[in-house]
Amino acid sequence: MFIPRIFLACTAAAVLAGICGCARNTAGGDAMKPVSFGKTADGTEVFLYTLKNRAGMEAKITNYGGLVVSLRVADRNGKLDDVVLGYDSLAGYLKETPYFGALIGRYGNRIRNGKFTLEGKEFVLAANNGPNHLHGGLKGFDKVVWTAEQVAAKDGPSLVLTYVSKDGDEGYPGTLTVKAVYTVTEANELTVEFTATTDKPTIVNLTHHSYFNLAGDNQDSTILNHVVMIDADRFTPTDSTLIPTGELKDVSGTPMDFRTPTAIGARINADDVQLKRAGGYDHNWVLNNTGKGMRLIARVTEPTTGRILEVLSAEPGLQFYTGNFLDGTIKGKYGRTYVHRYALCLEPQHFPDSPNQPAFPPVVLRPGTTYTNRIVYAFSAK
Ligand code: GLA
Q1: Omega into 106 within 30° of 0, i.e. cis?
Q2: Quick count: other Cβ atoms within 10 Å of Cβ 378?
Q3: Which residues lie closer than 8 Å to 211 by C-beta, 6 or more apart?
Q4: Which of 161, 168, 169, 171 is nearest to 196 (CA)?
Q5: Strand pairing partners for 60?
Q6: CB of 286 within 8 A of CB of 248?
Q7: Residue-wise pLDDT tens digits, 207-217
Q8: Which among 97, 274, 321 is the best mutation to test ligand 1's pocket, defined by most ligand atoms within 8 Å of the CB?
Q9: What are phi and psi of 171, to 5 degrees?
Q10: What distance lies between CA 326 and its chain's CA centroid?
Q11: Which one, 34, 40, 165, 172, has least CB within 10 Å?
Q12: What is the C-alpha to C-alpha distance for residues 265 and 349, in angstroms, rounded to an integer?
């Protein structure tokens, strides 16, 4: 008897909806075949890669900008939901994005007036954020097509992304060869491991820019109920253009003190000049225990679902941003409207404007040395 078989085309939509088949990789996790995610403005086809562990935690990542397009993690009942903001299709990202899920470089965060001096020479970068340079410029690493390779790494399925940024790209000196490896580990972590080398002295500060709302499908409002801990005794206050003043200020007695876990909404509207300037939290915390390798730097708990996100890194700083620039004009995945403070970002990095702040930890990379930044986003629930 002839039995008709239905073959589901592995389109990006089918993959996002979770109805496309996949093959088990040697690490035990699932490595789905990449599917087309569409074409960039210049006609380059980009792909959507799926990394899934045995427990079902799953990240979908495109090699356009290294964007994490969706991230499904379990709540306290084992229910998997998408906990990051983004668009259903590439078109959304090409039209407008405040760096949803992106790899950020060459310099994450702001550089005053888009200028810095290195070895006596001044370099001029794009002023793409008021008077300042932000997140690598007009076409940062979030808007380039990376070369991608899926591998079964020791810890779980990985996506290895590489990109060579030419000498002078966006005004930065030196050819920068960058690798960013995403892994979904069997311990329910999404890890991002950056390495970079250069052929001339340059500056580097790479980070990751997912917008998290741990409520998942409960996401009917903002992240003001999320409870945050940041292991930092000090932060870097900013001027009206969000450039650090240079002071490392004690958090004691200020709304910036997250050493004791506190709901974001408890103090975000306090009469505090730093919060008023940034429209909420959008600051760099001076992390404790810098120089001691990887350590827990922040923890976020969402009370209704029990989801917990822990962030680990060896970096000296953490930019904690509460989606203050989201204003309800962006409609993202699942038809949701991204209203003010709908998500939060936790960006382990060096301090903003370090190239112009000699007292901050240095960000210069020289030939013969390798830049590294490993970020662990570890998920659990209780
Ligand atoms: C970073 C910055 C914010 C904002 C977002 C992107 O987190 O610190 O001010 O620019 O990126 O919208």
Answers
A1: yes
A2: 17
A3: 84, 85, 86, 98, 100, 101, 323, 342, 343, 344, 345
A4: 161
A5: 50, 70
A6: yes
A7: 999 999 999 98
A8: 321
A9: 95, -5
A10: 16
A11: 40
A12: 24
Q: How many residues does the chain have?
A: 382
38: alpha, beta or left? (left if phi > 0; alpha if psi -120 to 50) = left
Strand ranges, E, within 7-146: 23-24, 30-31, 35-39, 45-52, 58-62, 68-74, 80-82, 102-104, 110-111, 115-118, 121-124, 133-134
Q: Please give all residues whose beta carbon lies within 6 A of any atom in ligand 1, as ranges.
A: 98-99, 109, 134, 242, 282, 319, 321, 325, 345
Let me know: does 346 contact 311? Beta carbons within 8 Å.
yes
Amino acid type, 142: D
**Global pTM value:** 0.93
Q: Considering the chain, what is the average pLDDT of its residues? A: 92
Active site amino acids: 209, 347
Structure token pair of residue 122: 């001044």
Q: Which domains does the chain have, with CATH numbers?
A: 5-209 (2.70.98.10), 227-363 (2.70.98.10)
Closest CA to 375 of 172, 193, 246: 193
Report how far apart the first and last C-alpha atoms of the chain are (Å, whole number).
51
pLDDT in tens, 128-159: 999 999 999 999 999 999 999 999 988 999 99
